[in-house]
Amino acid sequence: MKTFTVSRKRWHRGQGTSGSALRLEYGKQCCLGFLGQSCGIRAKDMLGISMPYHLEEELHNKFPQLGNIYYWANFSQINDDDEITDKEREQKLKDLAKANGFRFRFVP
User: Based on the structure, what is the number of domains in the chain?
Assistant: First the structure.
């Protein structure tokens, strides 16, 4: 099972869905941005893009394949949820990733 690393220092999370993206102008990114970067997608290609399925097909196909492309929204909802702690967020993302055939690892 492939593991994707998320740097807490550069992780944009818990601020609601407004303004969230795979990659933001100031260098932070959501959990899916880290995943995309690990899959070989350049930061500039993810800049301002809200979901993997909004990328060009060639880039979107580099992400792990889920049963339905819209399942990525489940990751986004957890990532952006402003009513849970980071500890809860990390565990929920780990559980969801595992259920979809990959893993997240969170580092300082």
Answer: 1
